Amino acid sequence: MKKKLLLIIFILFYTSTFAQSKSEIAVFYGRSAGQATFSIIRNGSLRGAPSGSLRDNNSIGIRYFTGINNKPKLKIETGIDYLVGKLEIKPAPVGDPIQDASHIEDFKLVTVPFYLNHSLGKYFYINEGIMLDYQKAKSDTFSGFGAGIGFGIGGKYECKNFSFYINPKIERHLFLSKKYGLIELGIMVGVGYKF
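Structure (tokenized):
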């Protein structure tokens, strides 16, 4: 009986000593700007079509990181981001100064990213992948479900179980949608905890 108890204690001690925490949860805050454009596949705006620009946008998000077996420098990154701010819309020109005036709409964007996160040494990483989006504005033209792609190059600093992040990014939302697309340039800062 004593041998079995000693064996169980030894196994628990051994596994807890050499187990590596591969999961992490982080909270991010971000600021962004960008261009809303009709052209999804090609670059640039469609002439004669309305366009828009993001103004005063803030985002908050929760990200979950988990390791991939036998790949210590590669993680899966997912979560949810919520962006809220203003969208300045410039209508299609019709030759009337009143009709051609731009206006501001409230804008909301919910994004669920599915990224791969590649560590580049101790302090840097690259994250890229796809996103599922829901975009809401007063105008139906700038509202709807869609998908997107994103890319970022970031820095991180780890201290015990905590991680501190800075992540400049570029994301193209509603990439597969027939509605207007949004190119978002931004930067996020965050704090994570490993468990």
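The first strand starts at residue 23 and ends at 37. Confidence is low (pLDDT under 50) at residues 10-19, 39-43.
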